[in-house]
């Protein structure tokens, strides 16, 4: 357990739902945890009791059993023969399934995660005296990492944001925290999607130091802010300590490749592209900023091909969330006989905002090719990591579950 827990004694390790456990108590619970017989992988759904989930994960790691986080024991048994030798953590990827409907699983070693513990603590200014809040289910890799990282540096993991000194959150979750008048932690570690400039400004106005990073379940950390809220707006991110980055031409733009000690071993039921030099990619597109940083544009497979032009969903979404009255937005492509695909936008509106006014404002903010042709007002479905579930939105729009949209006579709008 010495590699997993960075403290001992009665100091609080876990504090969830009003229950607390010290580091020694947690170590005893891990030692006494019951695991299924054998030496194969153990399923840990991790969407219920977080104390039980953390105990199970630590027990598996301590005893050399691979643990499938976010899956059932049946799932673990099914993939047992497919896991690479030496797998310690098997992580289900949110919003992504293989051809048979089972989740894609990222296989990695514990060292490939914990190697980044000291660099992240340095960037975020975290140490054993911190209380670190997680704001989502531990089945999501960013939240599981947040918990294991905090325990590794001897800090307390909690679900109580009000008592925390640091919080891990998606941009959407941080925006909701900032919308309240409650006291917030001094540091926010943000990932899961691109962070709008407006949100950075709001955090700075509340005295919160933001450490933004880009990563993926397969790659772990790739890019991060070096100077928190002191950096210039929209200056982009820089390679995370220990990471080499390469931007390579692809059909939709420049593809982001990374080489580091943090890469996963393989992806079961999926595809992790590597080259002979040890670089890997998940297909995200990026660009250099005028300040020399890197801006991540989004997954190449989220590109919408409309009227012969390539439009990145994340690019349009960034413009939409900057419009008055928009709390959050997601953009998808719909099949269209003439255009190939037409752009549809689903927006979460601020109280009192009107969808028609947002659509009108978008005509000014966006170029004609980027302009959504159909609009829907709805709460966005999300993956476990907090990202908009675009696949579900496409299905909901196609099935009419979001209503007719705006404008009601789409043919007239499309000719405008």
TrEMBL record:
Residue ranges, annotated region (Disordered): 386-416
Family: Belongs to the ATP-dependent AMP-binding enzyme family.
Organism: Agromyces kandeliae
Residue intervals of the AMP-dependent synthetase/ligase domain: 93-250
Domain AMP-binding enzyme C-terminal span(s) in chain numbering: 316-387
Keywords, sorted A to Z: Ligase
This protein's name: AMP-binding protein
Keyword Ligase: yes
Domain of life according to the entry: Bacteria
């Amino acid at each position: 357990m010495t590699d997993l827990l960075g403290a001992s004694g009665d100091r609080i390790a876990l504090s969830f739902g009003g229950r607390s456990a010290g580091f020694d108590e947690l170590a005893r619970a891990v030692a006494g945890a019951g695991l299924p017989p054998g030496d194969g992988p153990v399923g840990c759904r991790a969407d219920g009791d977080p104390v039980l989930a953390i105990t199970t994960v630590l027990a598996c790691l301590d005893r050399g059993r691979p643990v499938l986080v976010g899956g059932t024991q049946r799932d673990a048994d099914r993939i047992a023969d497919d896991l690479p030798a030496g797998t310690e953590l098997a992580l289900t990827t949110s919003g992504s399934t293989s051809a048979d409907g089972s989740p894609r699983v990222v296989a990695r070693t514990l060292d490939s995660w914990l190697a980044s513990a000291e660099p992240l603590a340095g960037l975020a200014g975290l140490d054993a005296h911190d209380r670190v809040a997680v704001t989502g289910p531990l089945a999501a890799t960013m939240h599981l990492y947040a918990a294991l990282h905090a325990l590794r540096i001897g800090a307390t993991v909690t679900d109580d944001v009000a008592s925390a000194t640091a919080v891990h959150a998606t941009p959407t979750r941080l925006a909701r925290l900032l919308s309240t008048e409650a006291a917030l932690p001094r540091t926010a570690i943000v990932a899961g999607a691109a962070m709008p400039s407006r949100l950075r400004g709001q955090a700075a106005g509340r005295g919160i130091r933001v450490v933004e990073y880009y990563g993926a379940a397969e790659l772990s950390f790739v890019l991060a802010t070096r100077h928190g809220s002191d950096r210039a707006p929209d200056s982009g991110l820089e390679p995370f300590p220990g990471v080499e980055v390469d931007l390579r031409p692809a059909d939709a733009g420049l593809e982001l490749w990374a080489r580091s000690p943090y890469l996963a071993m393989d992806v079961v039921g999926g595809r992790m592209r590597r080259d002979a030099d040890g670089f890997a990619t998940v297909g995200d597109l990026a660009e250099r900023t005028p300040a020399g940083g890197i801006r991540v544009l989004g997954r190449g497979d989220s590109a919408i091909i409309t009227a012969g032009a390539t439009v990145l969903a994340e690019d349009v979404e960034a413009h939409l969330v900057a419009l008055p009255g928009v709390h959050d937005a997601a953009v998808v492509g719909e099949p269209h006989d003439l255009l190939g695909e037409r752009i549809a936008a689903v927006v979460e509106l601020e109280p009192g905002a009107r969808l028609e006014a947002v659509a009108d404002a978008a005509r000014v903010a966006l170029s004609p090719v980027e302009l959504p042709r159909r609009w829907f007002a709805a709460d966005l479905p999300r993956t476990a990591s907090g990202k908009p579930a675009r696949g579900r939105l496409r299905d909901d729009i196609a099935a009419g579950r979001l209503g007719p949209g705006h404008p009601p006579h789409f043919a007239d709008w499309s000719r405008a």
